[in-house]
Amino acid sequence: MTFKQMFTSSVGKKLVMGFTGIFLILFLIVHAGLNATIFANDGGLMFNKAGHFMGSNAVPRILEIGLFLGIFLHIYQGYLLTLENKSKRAVGYAVSYDKGSKWYSRSMAILGTLILLFLIAHIYHFWTPSRLGGMAGIKALVEVEHNGVRLHNLYAEMDLVFTNPYIVVLYVLACGSLGYHLAHGFQSAFKTIGVHNKKYHAMLTSLGYGFAIFIPMLFAIMPISFYFDWIK
Amino acid sequence: MSHTTMNLNLKVWRQKNTKTAGAFEMYRVENISDEMSFLEMMDILNEQLITTGGEPVAFDHDCREGICGMCSMYINGKPHGPWQANTTCQLHMRAFKDNDTIVIEPWRANAFPVIKDLTVDRSAFDRIIQAGGYVSVNTGNAVDGNSLPIEKSKADEAFAAAMCIGCGACVAACKNSSAMLFLSAKVSHLALLPQGGPERKTRVTNMVAQLDKEGFGACTNTGACEAACPKEISIANIARLNKEYIVAGLTSE
Asked: What pTM, to 2 d.p., does this model score?
């Protein structure tokens, strides 16, 4: 078996989904952890320093390329698989079989699309002004000075963006989609990469549900906290 | 237990052959005993059709005791009907009530083309087995059964996978028309035993390649296959298949 065969067969395409999925799960931990610095209640200083490091240091910038590649592969392969799988049944059933599986397990493409739509808005809100601000008419972020270093005031930007209740609702709904996407995706990814031992399977299933609840809730509480001024 | 009879409306998929498009037809059957099997009820429908000069409904069946894997009806939105761990032939009419309308469809998947009415061509499964679902190394004469030490739990797990009768309910149940539960059962029952060892890499490689050629979809672990399987083949076998495939892919020449 060549590597090309290995990653382009029906099992192989799923391997790509599984591996990129686990990579994105790891990214979510980093993202949630960094964002949690807004709860330091120091006027956003720690958060802005973290943001400055992520934007100015070579290591996260190189890793960022990997992240975009991972996201792209996951989305591209996901749509390809969905279309291919759909095409395997030209004549459908009159009565569909939906008792044997969870609705969110069957709706990964729709949930993924909702997350993608959110992602576009999210990148527009924060990533573009921070990385490309000032270029080609893109709004530049306000800066703050700390120990002689000029930092983008991303904290103030979050505070500003989340004064709009529609955006807050959008972010919270996106977190819901992410939660259901993870509820299936987390445990499914590990099955796909071949984890079949009963003890690991039981562990990863519970861990997956825990992760699917905890991480999206942590993300959702951020815009809510800004909107209701729970953090200073 | 009291014996009852019922009258039923049947909405049955009729299709002349692979090339022509099919459609549902409504039929009425009366005085059906609740002790009858589903296929006996279909026999009555066919007798009725023959006596009135109609064309009987074609459907697959053979042993009628739940072990051959020939019966293949998709009844009221579930392969093999409403009962768990059950084949169509072992489904009994007590599962239904008087005046119920029962929708009967064939397995739907491009890899299982309809031959006629409710009969589909499942030879794709045979070709997948031919691609590697056996032990071809020379094993000599039959040896004493106890000369190959196998753990009881492993033997049980291999047997549970070998329970697969290849009926195709997993494909019919899957939103992706994926045959991964079938394939994983066939790969697992050999992967768990020492006899399957020598050819484990070529087996999984060739069987997956054949599966893709036949036009089945990819697995998304929804679990519908496991829920519909008349032999309760565990979806954990699919994860084992994936492991076998990764090991073969990474370590083959």
From this structure: 0.91
